[in-house]
Amino acid sequence: MSEIEKQKSEEEESSMAWPDIEEELVIPEVLHSEGVKKLHMSIQSEWDYLQKSACQTAAGRALWKHVIHDPLAHLFAGETHLRNLHTKIQTDRLNNAREISGVILAVRTLWFDTRIQAALESFHGEAAQVVLLGAGMDARSYRLNCLNKSDVFEVDFQDVLETKASLVQAAVNSRDDLRMTAKSLVRVAIDIRDNDWFEQLKKSGFLPEINTVWVLEGILYYLSHTEAMQVLKLIADKCGLTSTVLLADFMNKPSATLPNSVFHFYSDWPEQLLPSLGFSHVKLSQIGDPDANFGLLHDPRNLFNKLLRLPRTAQIHPDDGKPCCRLYLVEASGSPPQDNFLENHVSL
């Protein structure tokens, strides 16, 4: 095959793999209402980068709607974040990019969705709680049917949760088909960097003795090393009380230490860290692995597939000299010995 034929073949392959993302951005009518516009103006002027990251995540879920059904994503994202991401996607389309803007968010979302469902199924119908730490603009309580027997706790800053509640109310007022899929939902305004956050969670109705799935999506790396370790250790300690599942994403050192990075905590080997804290089972995946691609990473030459071919000890890519930035998707679990488990649950 000649070089021209090879290039044409690669372009055709890339074109065929392009995701079904709308070329013209359609802004839902509810985003034009005065109340919603005022809420998003406040977000843009008053929220910091960490809080705004919740809207950026929602924008990813909104524009990758061909694989993620999120009835609130457009509303949660707001017009500014939707247009910013859509512009990046269109630029990727023009440049025939191998990695498409938002694909990490899409893969990460789908991975967490599938693992939440699997974790709840592992409890075999027993009572369960799901705690979303740094819940941001997460809408799983309105889109995952597997939560229909679970009590869900959304934990975040007070202004984030208040704005979110107002946006949900705007959605309820504008449509008849929006229904909560979770058994119950409690929004808990606390800062997990505070020492007493777990006590505040219990005061909001969380029961430590009930099987729990802890969801830490897109939050750990914003914490300091000390803060992140305290949160992880507290969750790990619950393995001695009841069946506990942790779902979290970790950055490696090159990801968290880029110039002008806003990230702090990292772990190059979460599968070694978490057992040392008290988890008995740990499974790690990377973007592009068989359980973490969902058919969205077709080009074998894209960044994620190239990283998979390198040893994880590599800090710099030998081909281009760029840092090997990795995102680890990690499931960890543990439960008490049977005798202790029966003792803890005897009163239930």
Mean pLDDT over all positions:
91
Whole-Å distance between the termini? 70 Å
Major sheet size, sense and barrel closure = 7 strands, mixed
How much of the sequence is in beta strands? 5-15%
* Number of discrete helical segments: 12
> Strand arrangement, largest sheet?
3-2-1-4-5-7-6
Q: SSE order, as H and E? A: HHHHHEEHEHEHEHHEHEH
Task: Tell me the structural class.
Answer: alpha/beta
Radius of gyration: 21 Å
GO molecular function, one term: methyltransferase activity
Protein name: Leucine carboxyl methyltransferase
Family: Belongs to the UPF0677 family.
Keywords: Methyltransferase, Transferase
How would you portray this structure in words?
With 348 residues, the chain is of the alpha/beta class. Helices cover 42% and strands 14% of the residues. The protein has helices at 3-16, 34-46, 49-63, 73-94, 103-121, 158-174, 197-203, 225-237, 253-256, 270-277, 303-308, 338-345, and strands spanning 128-133, 150-156, 184-189, 211-216, 244-251, 281-286, 327-334. A seven-stranded mixed sheet has the order 3-2-1-4-5-7-6, with helices on both faces. Strand 2, helix 6 and strand 3 form a beta-alpha-beta unit. Helix 3 packs across helix 4 (73-94). Mean pLDDT is 91; it is low at 1-16.
